[in-house]
Amino acid sequence: MNAPMTSIERLHLELPELDWITDPSRIARLSQDFAWFSPVLDRQLKDKRADAVVRPRTEGEIRALVGACARLGVPITIRGSGTGNYGQTTPLAGGVVLDMTGYNALLWVRTGVARAQAGIRLGELEKHTRPSGQELRCIPSTYRSATLGGLFGGGFGGVGSINYGPLGAPGNVLGLRAMTIEPEPQIVELRGAEALRMHHLWGTNGLVLELEVALAPAHPWLESLVVFDAFAPALAFADALANAPGIVKREVAFFASPVPDHLAQLAEHLPKGCHAVLSLVAESSEDPMRALADAHGGRMTYRKTAEEVKKSNRTLMEFTWNHTTLHALKVDKSLTYLQSSFVPGRHVAQITEMEQRFAGEVLMHVEFLRGLDGLLTCSALQLVRFTTEERLAEIIRLHREHGVRINNPHVFVVEDGKAGGALPPDIVEMKKRFDPRGLLNPGKLRDWPVKP
Amino acid sequence: MNAPMTSIERLHLELPELDWITDPSRIARLSQDFAWFSPVLDRQLKDKRADAVVRPRTEGEIRALVGACARLGVPITIRGSGTGNYGQTTPLAGGVVLDMTGYNALLWVRTGVARAQAGIRLGELEKHTRPSGQELRCIPSTYRSATLGGLFGGGFGGVGSINYGPLGAPGNVLGLRAMTIEPEPQIVELRGAEALRMHHLWGTNGLVLELEVALAPAHPWLESLVVFDAFAPALAFADALANAPGIVKREVAFFASPVPDHLAQLAEHLPKGCHAVLSLVAESSEDPMRALADAHGGRMTYRKTAEEVKKSNRTLMEFTWNHTTLHALKVDKSLTYLQSSFVPGRHVAQITEMEQRFAGEVLMHVEFLRGLDGLLTCSALQLVRFTTEERLAEIIRLHREHGVRINNPHVFVVEDGKAGGALPPDIVEMKKRFDPRGLLNPGKLRDWPVKP
C-alpha cells in the first residue's frame, strides 16, 4: 500500500495541465526575493520554501488552482517577479507559490489610464503606453522585471513619486479585479478606496488579477549626474530642484559621499569622494536645471538625452531607490540598509543632523517624493555598515528618537512594516472577505486569525 | 505761418506707412485697461490717454517707430490687449501707445517649448500647441484676448499655476527677444534669469518682441462645480483636492458665499447661498475627485467633459481669477477687490480667520497655486464692498497685521505693487540698458530716473 498522497501531489494530479515547477532549485529560487539585503531577514527567511510553484496563464487556471488549494487547505503565496525586499514572496508555511508572471496581458490603454493583468512587467506595460505619449506614474527601479501586481501588492512607489506621491495616493490606482480564496472562488471588481485596501498588504488579503492604473504624460527625460565637493550644497541643490515648480522632473536622488564610490558602473562619472545628485528632468527644463546646479557650485558629469537613453538601453533610473542598495551591496557585502521618511519642511535639517550623527556608519541616500498629503519631502534608503543586529536596532531607535520615521526593512511580518501596528478594521474586513480560510501565506499577518 | 509740428505729427509724417489709430475715442479706449476694478485707480487714471496709438505688424515697423520716438523724445507705452488691472497700458505722460496685437506670429512649437511674437493671443497660441498634445503652463482667465507679451509684462500666472507656480518660476519662461529704446534700437536675446528681469515690470524696462515659453502636457480636463452648505468643508475639500498628488488638475478655486450668487451666468448650477469649488481635473482623476467631494459632503452641480467644453465653447476657466471679479462687478457696481497671498501650511487657517473677521464686507474668493518655492498655498482675490478709500486702506492694513500679504491692486506705480519697495539692482540695470532715455511710460517707475 502506497503512502497517502500529500496535498501537493493531489494538486498535481487534479490539475495536470497547469505549468508546474517542481525542480527543487527552481522552487528554492522562486521562494525568495531580495530579503537578503537584510542580514536579519536573510537569517530568518533563507531556508523557507514552497512545496511547489505554479505559473498559470489564464483566469481559468488561476481559478482552478485557487479552488483546489482552498478545498485541500494548501497555503498560497502570490509572487510577481520577486523584486520585493521583505520576503513578500517567501512562503512561511510551505504550500504553493503562485507565480503570476505568466498572466500578463495588456487589456487596454486609454487617455490617462491603462489596465492589465497583474503579472505584466512594468517595462512591458510602458511599451504599450509610450505610443500614446504616456508612461506609468510611479515605478520602482526594478521596473524591467517587476510586475504590476507585485508593485501594488508589495511596493510603494519610486521614480515618479516626486510628482504623484506614493502609489497609494488616491487617483494612482483606480480599480482592480480580485479573486477570493475559496473552494468556489468569486471574482469581484473593486474601485478607488476599496481597491486600495489590498495595497501593500503583501498579497495577504486578496488575489489581484487585474489592475487599472492612472498614467502620466511622458516627457523626453534628460538623465544627468551633477557632482559636488560638499554635502550641504549638493543636498540644497537636490532640494531646490525637487521643489522648483517650473522644472518638470521624474526623479531626484541625492547620494552623499561615499555612496557614489559604490556605484561601480558609473565610476567614470563620479569622482572619488564626491556627493552626487541624480535627476531626470524634462529636456525643456534642462536650462533652468543647469542654472540651479551652477548656482550651487555643482558640475555636470553625465548627461544623456531621452534619445541617447533609448538607444543605449541604459538608464540612471536603475541606479535609484533600491537599485542603489543593490549596486552598493554588490561592491561591499558588509552593507545593509534602512528606509526612512522625514518630516516635510524639516527634511533637509533632519537629513543633515542624521548625516552628522552617524557619519561613516550610515551612508546617506535620499530620494525626493511627495507624501500622501502632497507635501514634498524625502525618503532615505541609507546604507548601513552592518555590525550586529543589536547595533542595527539601536540605529533605528536613535533615528526615531530624532523624529525620523523608520519603515523597518528588517521585518517580514506585515504589521511590523510600514503599516506599523495593528491592521485597520477595513483591512481586516477585506481579509475576512477574500481569504476566509487564512490560506494566503499564513504567518505573514501576525494578527490573523484575529486573536480573541 | 503754421504752428510748429508736435512730435506726434512728426511721427505720422515720418512713418506714414504704419497702422496709426487717431480717432480720439479709440485712443481713449486703447489707453485704458481693467483698472476700473479699483475705484482708486479709476479716479486716478481714467482721464489719462495717449496722443496716438500705433499697431505695427513687423519687427521693422517696430524698430522704425521706436527709433523715431527715441530721437523725438516721445514716450512709449507698450500694450497687449489691455486685460491688466493696474493701468499697465495707460500712458501717464501721453505719447504713443504701442499696440502689439498685430505682431502675433507663431514662430515654432517643439516638444515642451513654443516661441511666438509677443502680440499673439494666448488662446491662439494654444490652438497651435494642442495638435501636439500641449498647452500653456499658466494662463490668466483672460486667455482668449490676453497676449503672450502682456502676460509676461503685466501678468502673474493663473490657471495652471497650481502645478507650475507663477510664470516667474524658473523654467516657465525660457527666453525672449527684446529691443532697446534708442535712436538706433538694438535687438538682444535674453535667456533664463536674465529674461525674467523684464517680467512683471509692466513694460517699463524693455520692449519684448518674442517669448519662448515651456509648455505643459494637455490633459482632457473635466470641468466641475461642487457646492456645499458650509464654508469649512468647502474650503477643506478645495485644499485637499489641490494637495492630492494623485489627482491631476489644472485649476482649483473656492468661492465662499455669497460670491457664487454673483456669478449670474452659472446661477442654475449655484444654489443661492452656497459655497462652491470650481475645478479642472484630468478626466482620469474624476473618480478620486468625486470620492473626495463626497467625503466632504459636497454635491456636484456642474460637470462637463473636455469634449463638451470644446463643443460648447464655454469654459469655467472664464469664471476664475480676475474673471470672478469681473462677473461680480457686472452684477454689483459697489464691489472692488483685493489680491492676497497666504502663508503655505497656514493658508487654510488664515483664510478662515479673515473670513470671520471681515464677514459681509470682504467676500472670499480663493485660488490655489504653488509659490516660487513650490509649496502649495492660496492666493485670494477677495471681493470688497467698497465704502471709502480710507476703509479700503484699513482693510489692507488689518490683513497685513494678520500676516496676510496684500499685493495692493489699487496702486499704479510699479514699486508700490507686487515688487513692494525699491527696485532690485538687476532690474535697474536692465532699465538703464534697455531704456536709457526713460521713454517707457514715464511715471510708472517712481524711482526712475534714479534719484541721487
TrEMBL record, chains A, B:
Top-rank taxon: Bacteria
Keyword annotations: FAD, Flavoprotein
Domain FAD-binding PCMH-type: from-to ranges: 46-218
Protein name: FAD-binding oxidoreductase
Organism per entry: Variovorax ginsengisoli
InterPro entries (UniProt xref): FAD-bd_PCMH, FAD-bd_PCMH-like_sf, FAD-bd_PCMH_sub2, FAD-linked_Oxase-like_C, Oxid_FAD_bind_N
